[in-house]
Amino acid sequence: MFPLRLLLALALAVGSCAAPTVSGPPSPRFVAIALGAGGGPGQDDLSAYLLAPAGSSDYVALDAGTLLAGIKKAWNAGSFRDLRPPADATLAPEGWILRERVKAYLISHGHLDHVAGLIVDSPEDGSKAILGLPSTIDVIRDHLFNRRAWPNFGDEGEGALKKYRYARLEPGRAQAIAGTAMSVEPFVLSHASVVSTAFLIGGGGAAALYFGDTGPDAVEGSDRLSAVWTRIAPLVRDGTLRGIFIEVSYPDGRPDHLLFGHLTPAWLMHELRRLAERVDPTNPAQALRRLTVVVTHIKPSLNTGPSPRERIAGQLAERNDLGVRLHVAEQGQRIEF
Ligand SMILES: [Zn+2]
Ligand SMILES: [Zn+2]
């Protein structure tokens, strides 16, 4: 018979010895909720993600293709497990989350599959900021919240109702995202004939990078992705950058001249290899092993057979010689990284 005190001492000793040698994935620093993982056609699953530092319930929306339908699906799936609407709430959970927990919008470009939810849900939304490059804000002001396509819920132009505050971002400069504990620095992307944006978001001492639609540099005749890889390489190297959200719109096999400013699995891996070479030129194959890569904007097909999501997931798994933590997003999911 061992005295209880001795057993306790042994347990403590084992515990304290074991703890430092346990190695697993580091504790997550961000929570993302996929409100829309597709990229059109289809109106109910368009690009939109909520992001907050772990432990915070003040979210920023990364694009806003589908809002309420995605919030509802995520709520029913239990993905908002740390959120409790107030006991005296008169709003349904999805209304409370839209109005009270989504604190701001980061919009990558003005294409409808990235703003449709923001427009049609706006009458029931709360007052908050819409952040984007000046060219994106101008599209929203002039062509969407313009009193003709939709009431002007912005704070500029004819008949402005001033529900939303436009905030123009400047490439190369980080600025606070009002209402959250996060900051954002934008990068210009090339998306066929349109200027798109990547957002480097900082919060809680870590960072996440969200890409709006983008083509590969080689097809776009651009160096925009190259510039992003150069900027973030040190953040990958020191572990600050935890995850990247990036699009793969089509499965492999689609010819480059029909990409219309989008990526395929082969092109994504090509671009990630360029990042890996900047992170660790001596050992690029190991350079991205701590990085989570969330694949977004998969375009559904109207054909029978395996879905583009299945095909893309399979092709990426096969090509992933960098060992990145691939996560093919699905509407309603909670993603921690
Ligand atoms: Zn799109
Ligand atoms: Zn687009």
Layout of secondary structure:
Elements: H1 4-21, E1 30-36, E2 48-53, E3 59-62, H2 68-76, H3 93-101, E4 102-106, H4 112-121, E5 128-132, H5 134-144, E6 164-168, E7 175-176, E8 183-191, E9 194-203, E10 206-211, H6 217-220, H7 224-237, E11 241-247, H8 265-279, E12 292-296, H9 308-319, E13 325-328, E14 334-336
Parallel strand pairs: 3-4, 4-5, 5-6, 10-11, 11-12, 12-13
Antiparallel strand pairs: 1-2, 1-14, 2-3, 7-8, 8-9, 9-10
Helix pairs in contact: 2-3, 7-8
The structure holds zinc ion (ZN) (2 copies).
One zinc ion binds at residues 109, 111, 191, 213.
Report on the architecture of this protein.
By secondary structure, this protein is an alpha/beta fold. Helices cover 30% and strands 23% of the residues. It contains 9 helices and 14 strands. A 7-stranded mixed sheet has the order 6-5-4-3-2-1-14. α2 packs across α3 and α7 crosses α8. The protein starts with a helix and ends with a strand. It binds zinc ion (2 copies). The site of one zinc ion has 4 residues, from loops.
